[in-house]
Amino acid sequence: MNQRLALAIMNEGHSVFLTGPAGSGKTYILNQFIKLKKHEGKHVSVTATTGLAASHLGGSTIHSWSGIGVRDEVGVHFVDNLSKSRREIIEKTDILILDEISMMHDFRLDMIDQITRLVRREPDKPFGGIQVIMSGDFFQLPPVNRADSLEGNFVVFSKVWAEIDPVICYLEEQHRQDSDDHLSAILDAMRARDIRRSHAEALLARAELLPPEGSVFTELHTVNVDVDTQNLAKLEDLEGDEMVYSQTTTGSDGYVESLQRSVLAPSELRLKRGALVMAVKNSLDRKYVNGSLGTVVDFDPATQYPIVEFANGKEVTMQPDTWELRDGDKKRASITQIPLRLAWAITIHKSQGMTLDAALIDLRKAFVPGMGYVALSRVRNLDNLYLKGINRTALEISETAYDIDEQLRAKSAKDAKKYADLEATIESVEFKKAPKQPSGWADKIAKMRETYPNAYRPWTEQQDALLKQEFQLGKSVQELSKELGRHEGSITMRLQKHFGEDVVVR
């Protein structure tokens, strides 16, 4: 199926599974569809199974959107304990985008279905009547089964998948790799169960080469320990003082350990100027998202928090953030840490959904089918791919994935014929300029700055010095607020930071 027909089918209001090889344009089509529907005034909830994948679409994780977090089941009072804002988001949603669906367990998709039916009070409609657009590739990484969690399978085995019976839009065109490149042939051969000696030799030849000296590339590894070793080695090579940030926690050890597995920030974060880092949480002011890459350019002189320049050009002083594990309205555990991790090297799991200019990949320890396919398909051509080594597992794809793919291809062919007439309709679609909507948070800040000109601006060293001096001279919070152009609450918090939480302010 081509991209235009897929977009036309989605535009018609059908629930869809959008799939195809890496580089076939799935994310592009999703972005086009999201843009189109938002211009029509539809409420589109954009989610993905991972934070990084969500960042590519400007959305959130499905776990956050639904409120399920790290749960394995929907409890009796789960929906009753959802926040009002979370319920409103689900109730208003017309279209739910769910990207990288291959990494979601079947039982969790059923959980999402159950929650949406209950919140929207539509128990007889899949997902409570929401149009659902799922996207992914089952040749990529499967859902991870952990010892302390329910064992699950691909989402095609969920109850709601059969009930919703999505239209299958299997994209066949290749838009990432060069069409005449050997890498495309290797990836196609992996999908077709037709890996030959020439393909293996082409890959092994890349193991004899190293990236050019001074070139910029990302290292991909199969396990976290190798990622950590490489990142720390790179950090040691940097000159300058090292800053260390240790996490703080609340809750029992068992709950903290459970939460720790879903928090990508390390328990001890080590940084220097020049360190390559990745944000591991969305910022409330949208200056960065989970997966954003940046460089540490300095440290705030007052707080010593790292100042990061992200790839989008924004410079942000990174402050500690908090992750919570909740059971209904009860907080079981929390972790507070600077939401960063070193990013010279990342795991292959973390790279899913990325397109890299160049990569040095270590597949010697590949341990799950699909891992090699994900890693190799991150780059556009073979010339920009370098290997530290590769094992047999790296070239394997699960038999289940092959069976699913065969069924999806067959149904996509039928659906393409069934909806062929819709392709012409998309030609008449115009992306009209949407009326300007209030930006919400930005508007609130702008309004606040009418009274407090420095509201939400970083504190300078001079401002901090003046604050401490004037406070010690006896000025009140109200006077300091007026003098420094900041809200009284901000003044109080800053004073507590400098003089302790027990400081008496008036």
Question: Widest sheet: strand order?
Answer: 3-2-4-5-1-6
CATH superfamily of the largest domain: P-loop containing nucleotide triphosphate hydrolases
Q: Please give the largest β-sheet.
A: 6 strands, parallel
Mean pLDDT: 83
Number of structural units classed as domains: 4
What is the CATH architecture annotation of the largest domain? 3-Layer(aba) Sandwich
Which word captures the global form? globular
| N-end to C-end Cα span | 68 Å
State the helical fraction. 25-40%
Features:
4 domains, 18 helices, 20 strands, 506 residues, 36% helix, five-stranded antiparallel β-sheet, alpha/beta, Rossmann fold
Short synopsis of the structure:
The protein is α/β, with parallel strands linked by helices and 506 residues long. The protein has helices spanning 3-11, 26-39, 51-57, 62-66, 84-92, 106-120, 159-164, 182-191, 197-206, 224-237, 253-260, 348-351, 371-376, 399-418, 441-451, 461-472, 477-484, 488-499, and strands at residues 16-19, 44-48, 60-61, 95-99, 131-135, 167-170, 218-221, 243-246, 248-251, 268-271, 276-279, 293-299, 306-310, 315-317, 321-327, 330-337, 340-342, 345-347, 359-363, 385-390. A hairpin with a 2-residue loop joins strand 15 and strand 16.
Outline the structure in words:
The chain is of the alpha/beta class. The chain has 4 domains: 3-175 and 399-428, P-loop containing nucleotide triphosphate hydrolases (Rossmann fold), CATH 3.40.50; 194-217 and 356-395, no CATH class; 221-345, no CATH class; 445-499, no CATH class. 36% of the residues lie in helices and 18% in strands. The chain has 18 helices and 20 strands. The chain has helices spanning 3-11, 26-39, 51-57, 62-66, 84-92, 106-120, 159-164, 182-191, 197-206, 224-237, 253-260, 348-351, 371-376, 399-418, 441-451, 461-472, 477-484, 488-499, and strands at 16-19, 44-48, 60-61, 95-99, 131-135, 167-170, 218-221, 243-246, 248-251, 268-271, 276-279, 293-299, 306-310, 315-317, 321-327, 330-337, 340-342, 345-347, 359-363, 385-390. The chain has a 6-stranded parallel sheet with strand order 3-2-4-5-1-6. Strands 14-13-12-11-17 form a 5-stranded antiparallel sheet. Helix 1 (3-11) packs parallel to helix 2 (26-39). The radius of gyration is 25 Å and the shape is globular. It starts with a helix and ends in a 7-residue tail after the last helix. The model is unreliable at 430-441 (pLDDT under 50).
